[in-house]
Amino acid sequence: MVKNILLFDIDGTLLSSAGAGKDALEKGMASKFGVKHIVDGLSLSGRTDKAILHDLLKLHGIEHNDESYQTMIKAYLEHLPECLKNVQGKILPGIKQMLDELKSKGDCAVGLLTGNLRAGAKIKLSHFHIFDHFQFGGFGDHHLDRDDVAREALAEIHARIDKDFDRAKVWVLGDTPLDIKCARAIGAKVLAVATGWHTTKELESHRPDLVFEDLTDFEMVLERIFA
Ligand SMILES: [Mg+2]
Fold first, then answer.
1. Measured in whole angstroms, how far is the alpha carbon of residue 176 from the centre of its chain?
2. How far, in Å, from the CA of 169 to the mean position of ligand 1?
3. In this structure, are 191 and 215 located in the same domain?
4. Alpha carbon of 31 to ligand 1 centroid (Å)
5. How confident is the model at residue 46 (pLDDT cuts 50, 70, 90)?
């Protein structure tokens, strides 16, 4: 029986892909639309890939329609594996051990709650050999707002695990204020970790249930979650 559900964000929480995602966007924009450099001012932190791609096309004066969006998705996904190979990304501290521990416990469901495209998430997690730890998730393919990604993940919980699952036993783990906000949108608990772009102080101001510098002490972190 599933007692707890943990939903992990990817970038800045599970791993650092050292700019590979942005490189793949840049290569995609260059190959499909002849754009050499992505202009500054594109906000990535905690946002969905759909929202990022929407802004990216708009910022470069490219009409945003289904065709241009699909073209960019395809180009981004084509370039992503090679871009991941070309940089020194890493799994963040404590993550591998925490995932192994959750697997061995046997009473936790582990999923994703990420702004990444479903296919992009698979590429990133497979690159670091941790894709098999995740059974389901909410993704950024169809949503501009991360709160809707959380709703997608919750719908998956209802469909796969229990339609009445206690939301106080659902935890979102993320590295940005938007992760905290979207957890609240579905009535879940939230652990914020400062391994991404935000400090513990910044994250604390958004009132997560728990906040940590990193997840090195994964046993203590899990104890706090399961308390
Ligand atoms: Mg993140």
1. 10
2. 21
3. yes
4. 27
5. confident
